[in-house]
Automatic annotation (TrEMBL):
Record's keyword terms, sorted: ATP-binding, GTP-binding, Nucleotide-binding
Keyword flag Iron-sulfur: no
InterPro entries to which the protein is assigned, alphabetical: P-loop_NTPase, RapZ-like, RapZ-like_N, RapZ_C
HAMAP family (alphabetical): RapZ_like
Protein's name in the database: RNase adapter RapZ
Originating gene: rapZ
Residues bound to ATP: 8-15
Domain RapZ C-terminal: 164-284
Keyword Aminoacyl-tRNA synthetase: no
SUPFAM superfamilies linked to this entry: P-loop containing nucleoside triphosphate hydrolases
Highest rank taxon of the organism: Bacteria
Binding site for GTP: 59-62
Limits of the RapZ-like N-terminal domain: 1-155
Amino acid sequence: MKLVIVTGMSGAGKSIALKILEDLGYFCVDNLPIQLMPKFAEILTTPNSELKQVALGIDVRSGQALDGLEEQLNAMDKAGIDYEILFLDAQDDVLVKRYKETRRQHPLGGAGHIDVGIAKEREKISFLKMRATYILDTSKMLTRELKKELEQIFVDGKNFKNLYITVMSFGFKYGIPQDADLVFDVRFLPNPYYISGLKEKTGNDREVQEYVMNSPRAEEFLKKFTDLIQFLLPNYILEGKNQLVIAIGCTGGKHRSVTVANALYQVVKQDENYGVRIEHRDIEKDAITKAK
């Protein structure tokens, strides 16, 4: 029997995660009364139980009963009941935005005070994050990316190290990404913007990639750059980081930064210990500006 407790911040995607797990063959129960958890787990562990994979959704909707959850988990530990905790999180500004988009009220926010509700919730469920087996930050995740992560954890059984990486290209003239953890400037590399036949292409095109990287200096930079990132990633995990945004910038975010971001993405995605996505923030902005 496999028991997964799905919890985390309201608005971080718990309902979506439960639906994904249900599609993966889990029997899902959302908002089970906390007082029933040990009894429910006991039923699941009985011989010949038909329920082999179960996911329980638990969050602040449980009200005051949430205060007794840690005691219930300790009781399950003593009884030898195996379980895993999946904790879904997101940055505060992302949670606020999601609540405003859906026009929902935070369960602890009172009359419209979303940020107050988020702060209260973080405090109330901090013990669950400390006990979590898996922590997923969904701030930048699309539903399909969350699905892929859950499949890797609960279907493929891949080693999970609680780090989801966004490799992002951008243009300095459009501003540095506010959520960037690491920012790299690649404006020293050859610029295809001034080359006839390459100006309108992007770093997703082979011709641009070859032009940007066709020098010993560029090759040496890419090697040292990828070595640095590969050194940093496991150390960020040791520090408890679960979301990392690596921003790579050139002037307009169309050629050099896209080329280098693509190259780094190809290296990082080979390590199955990390979740990784790529985003080219400004790749189309030159065209949009010209159209205006």
